């Protein structure tokens, strides 16, 4: 238990270091933007006096390192700046958009995991049969299918040709309209999860095959233990150690894909916020959204690392 606590502690200690690194990278890259934040906030019709006053008030005339320190200090207290002529809060916009992106990400993740576990286990149990070959073909097809292309096909099939699911319109809160929420999120979640399901199926199938070939499986089968019990109690748990590690990287893919899928399905998440920031020349909005998405990816991967330690007791003594 002490070793487990130390491992978790190391990952948590590394979190602030990674946060500082991400903020520095995002701020550094955004400093190359040709857009003047003063013009973006006040408009091109603003006077030179107003622009100069805005730059002075927001520290835009300070040296770059000083600007970063101020930005980091504001970020630590939840201030991501403002954008637009109305000086809207970036933090408030992110607070409204981020939950939608995370909902879409994790629903897509759940879909991917369910399909991957079912088909990965079946492919391993019936390896080198027609079942395995069929699942291999389907999984490769899923991997080769871009989420945005699948999203367009789903809209054409289930919105245009057969109006079963809405592809646009407001997203109701789950507590207010569960059915409407599910109908609105069904297609984007499926489009997001299918490519991940394909790649994860191959990982689970390989891990399952390796476990099924181990001596303890042959011993248990020789002792008369039913195959279903061996798989559910031992093989599946041991085989999922590797896919859990891979899953952390797939979450990052899902979050990045969710940003694109949101634009296609007109969901008011982080993707739409980034699109607005790019189209309307709001660098502070793009900077804030990018930073929060990157930090969410880091935190999710730390959680996955801790989960990996809990699942695999063999590395708790490392």
What does this molecule look like?
- The chain has 318 residues and is mainly alpha-helical.
- 76% of the residues lie in helices and 1% in strands.
- It contains 13 helices and two strands.
- The chain has helices at 2-30, 37-42, 48-57, 64-76, 90-125, 130-143, 147-161, 178-212, 215-222, 227-239, 241-265, 270-279, 283-311, and strands at residues 82-83, 88-89.
- The chain has a two-stranded antiparallel sheet.
- Helix 5 runs parallel beside helix 13 (283-311), helix 8 packs antiparallel against helix 11 (241-265) and helix 12 runs antiparallel to helix 13.
- The termini are close together.
Name the descriptors:
318 residues, mainly alpha, 13 helices, 2 strands, 1% strand, globular
Outline of the structure:
It contains 13 helices and two strands. It has 318 residues and is mainly alpha-helical.
Q: What is the CA-CA span between the terminal residues?
A: 12 Å
Provide the succession of SSEs. HHHHEEHHHHHHHHH
Proportion in β-strands = under 5%
User: Which outline best applies?
Assistant: globular
Q: Averaging pLDDT over every residue, what do you get?
A: 81
Q: What's the Cα radius of gyration?
A: 24 Å
Number of alpha- plus pi-helical segments: 13
Low-confidence stretches: none
Major β-sheet annotation: 2 strands, antiparallel
- Number of DSSP-assigned strands: 2
Strand order of the largest sheet: 1-2
Structural class: mainly alpha
Helix content: over 70%
